[in-house]
Amino acid sequence: MAKPNGTYESKQPDASGLIAYSAEEDAVWHDLYKRQVDLLPNRVSHEFLDGLDKLGLTQDKVPQLRDVNARLAECSGFGVEAVPALITPTTFFTLLANRKFPIATFIRRREDFDYLEEPDIFHEIFGHCPLLTHPVYADFLEKFGKIALSFDKSYVWRMQKLFWFTVEFGLIKTHEGPRVYGAGIASSPGETVYAVESREPERRDFDLLSIFRTPYRIDIFQPIYYCIEDFDQLLAVLDQDLQAIMDEAKRLGAFKPTFPPVEKHAAE
User: Fold this and answer.
1) Domain 22-252: which topology?
2) All structural domains of the chain with their residue ranges
3) How many CA atoms lie within 13 A of 216 on its CB side?
4) Other Cβ atoms within 10 Å of 218 Cβ, number
5) What SS3 class is residue 231?
6) What is the distance between the alpha carbons of residues 110 and 57, in angstroms, rounded to a whole number?
7) Distance between CA atoms of residues 132 and 78, nearest Å
């Protein structure tokens, strides 16, 4: 996204592939990285931690996309691409289908340090890229993009729902209990702890029909998470007849929301 809420603008690489970040932007990255990395042990999946090591991110500077690309190419053949503006679902899915993950290259300011609704480069690189080093997960994203492109536009929002409950807010089962793999959780200090340790959310076994029927809000900690067994299962779900399952979800209707409605301001 280039201009979320009209306050941020993505940065474009120069001819050498480098993006210029200020000392303050590097300092924000440092503080975000330090806060989050200290929370990860015993809360995120070992595949995520392995991927973070493989990326070789530094704590002191905002990472350069060309360096991330080089690392990902070695691990999985995936890559990243700076996006200059808000992109359409078709563009997004096309990038995935071509083994590219779109990256918003701006980084949040101090006043948005704890929460930013739109994804910035910290969310994109720290949250998404560690698992892009995992070949099976990378194959899942490529196949997801190709399948999504094959559907009529009326199915796109349901595919986005599947993306939400996996890539953004998915949990994975381990012998030690549920662990985080979704980027929306892994880049959030509060939700990293909440998703794994709180008694409030419901952690359900992964089920496509249920996912397609589950409403969600983007501005709260999730009340429901879906837990995969492993990444092979995640890839295998795309072999199911997704259109038929989405049609059945539409016939049955959405589950009753487990969260309060969005509060509207008096002026609205």
Assistant:
1) Phenylalanine Hydroxylase (1.10.800)
2) 22-252
3) 27
4) 12
5) helix
6) 21
7) 7
Q: Using one digit for the tens of pLDDT, what is the confidence trace for 28-69?
A: 999 999 999 999 999 999 999 999 999 999 999 999 999 999
Tokens of 139: 């194959």
Q: Does residue 244 surpass a pLDDT of 80?
A: yes
Which amino acid is residue 262, in one-letter code? V
Structural element, H or E, at residue 253: none
Among 152, 149, 188, which Cα is nearest to 44's? 188
Question: Which residue is listed with tokens 């929002």?
Answer: 157
C-alpha 254/C-alpha 216 separation (Å) is 11
Distances (CA, A) of 62 to 38, 256, 265: 18, 41, 37
Strands 171-172 and 179-180: antiparallel
Candidates 101, 98, 82; CA nearest to 143 is 98
Distances (CA, A) of 139 to 101, 121, 143: 12, 23, 6
Taking CA 33 as the corner, what is the angle to CA 220 and CA 123, rounded to the nearest 5 degrees? 45
